[in-house]
Amino acid sequence: IRKKVRLCWNPPRGSKDEFANSITLGLKFDIDGKLTESPKNLTRNYRGSLLAFEAARRAVIRCSPYSELNPATYDVWKELNLVFQPKNMVR
User: Fold this and answer.
1) Each residue of 55-78: pLDDT tens digit?
2) Measured distance CA(65)–CA(55) in Å, rounded
3) Which of 17, 59, 64, 80 suits 10 as a labelling partner, its CA being 20 to 30 A distant?
4) Could you tell me the pTM of the whole model?
5) Structural contact between residues 61 and 12, judged by C-beta atoms closer than 8 angstroms
């Protein structure tokens, strides 16, 4: 998922310091790999930019569906927490 999302990542304008912290997104999928709801910000003590969170959320939505996920293991990936390092998302 992370590799695919990197292709959809479009960094927001702003200070690089705003993107130094990691962001954790909560994702929920249906069995076809489509998002069932908008990604949630699960980051504890988030000190980064709301712009970085929004960019990560948009990238995950833009790349959906994730048809490469194996339906046989749906119980494993139907709900995932994806950790983003915005500074490492540059293509």
Assistant:
1) 889 999 999 999 999 999 999 999
2) 17
3) 80
4) 0.83
5) no
